[in-house]
Amino acid sequence: MSSNLGSPSPIQPLNIGDVVTGGFRLYRSHIKEYFFIALKAYAWVIVPIYGWAKFYALSSLISRLCFGELVNQPEDIKSGQNFVNSRLGQFLVQMLLMSLIGIGIVLGFSIIFGFVGVAIGGIIGGLAQTSNAVQIIVSVLLGIVVLAVFLIGLFWVLTRFYLVDVSLAVEDNTNASSAISRSWELTKGNIWRIFGVMLIAFLITLPLQIVVQVIVTILQIVFIPLIEQNSGLFSLVYLVLVFSISFSSGALIVPFWQAIKATIYYDLRTRHEGLGLRLRDHEI
């Protein structure tokens, strides 16, 4: 990676293109190592609770390694893995906390959405003397506005927690709950920049996701008739193929997203704390 991404000063934020480019370069330059870390993480998914925490920790390990590259303090995989493994319990706690927070957010927004729906019903009821066309138009417009506000509000809140795993994987004096607060602090005032980065990253990974979906669909077309013949062998082969394709594609995509996260985290810490973090002076 070149010595800078658009030559930002220590307090100047990277733009959306810089963040995506930086994340992609990190991903590309270490794709083999990151792929096998992610593949190892996916292998743990089949183990309930503990395995999910391992997946969470190993995925975050990729962000830790990327951040080390960005601040010119590269770390070997074994050392980084020892660090995240030492916090496995905290990753599990954070995973549970984020699940509870997610449930609370959805319930909260659902309640608000319900009250708003009742209010809209009252407004529409007040239009009883108007034509059906007017009622339909008003209903549709109000529905679109409410749905847009609901989605924007939900996205805004969820984005404030975008960096919880990176903070826990990188910072020394932190735990599950303080890392959540840390993400809330760092993302303040940067929601739309983060959204722009996430949108571009999603578009970059979309072709691979489409290809995977097409392959899985073809497998379904081929194997479902065979499975319906009560063949346990075909069911096993089908499951092995689907899981292999899903895990392999996931192991290609997850490191890219974690590299993007690390670059956003690097950028926001530079902006908020003026750490003067610089990218490495040679190609990563």
Describe the overall structure.
The structure is a single chain. With 284 residues, this protein is an all-alpha fold. Helix content is 78%, strand content 0%. The protein contains 10 helices and no strands. α5 packs across α8. The radius of gyration is 23 Å and the shape is globular. The N terminus and C terminus are likely disordered.
Distance between the termini: 5 Å
Number of helices: 10
Low-confidence stretches at least 5 residues in length (pLDDT < 50)?
1-11, 276-284
Q: Pairing-aware structural class of the strands and helices? A: mainly alpha
Rg is 23 Å
Tell the overall outline.
globular
Q: Characterize the main sheet.
A: none
**Quick check: average pLDDT?**
84
User: What is the helical fraction, as a range of percent?
Assistant: over 70%
Q: What fraction of the residues are assigned to beta strands by DSSP?
A: under 5%
